[in-house]
Design brief:
The chain is α+β, with helices and mostly antiparallel strands and about 240 residues long. The longest helix is centred in the N-terminal third of the chain and has 37 residues. The protein has one domain: Lipoprotein localisation LolA/LolB/LppX (outer membrane lipoprotein receptor (LolB), chain A, Clam), CATH 2.50.20. The protein is globular.
Length: about 240
Amino acid sequence: MSNNRKIFMAVFCLLSIAINAQNSDRKRITDLFDKAQKLFDLKNYYLESDYKLFVNYTSNEVKEAYKGITLKKGENMYTKLGSSEMISTNNLFIKIDNDNKRMKVDKISSNAQKPILELNSYINYFSGYRLTESNGQWICTLTTSKVSVVPYSKIIVYINKNDYQIQKQELFFLTKYQTKIVNGKPKLDYPRLQIIYSNFKKSGFPPNDYFNVDNYVKKTNQKYYPIKKYKSYTIVD
């Protein structure tokens, strides 16, 4: 057998091993995502989150940062993300943009009860899968080089090995965005979003006032209007 033939066969064997390992890691990652998602299928829970958008993949320079909370009680859910709030009851969905003083009121959306991204819903959009473990966490890495409905080239999900809670996500954007101004000119780069989840609780929640629609809007003649607290707000379609 020629040297070139031997090299080709060796490379082929390595590729086969790599493909089998990737398939194995994909199945294990899928199983982990399923277990992690079950926590958010609970009837009641409270969760805090911390978001940081870094200017590029490796920098520690933060472009934006904001905090969030999610509270679920039965069919009701309240989510606060930075200055935005979302209230979901069994028949109404309210979104509040406090920066721009706008409110949107709709009939309940099936997506309103899903504040945590269902990772398995987009796992097919990635082509590379790697599962490692460190410091009591499963570290799930998904990669792709193709632009799709998922705007990330890579995501890394950290899952607690004891209770399968998602502790952190890192999302690496696939396209460039303006991250800052340098010498009067916009600088484009590939940003990275880090989300850290903490203080997960199954009981000991804040009061039910979060879910009381009357604390946000009132209905008159089949139309919704902001209550006095939000009198300077506009309800948009």
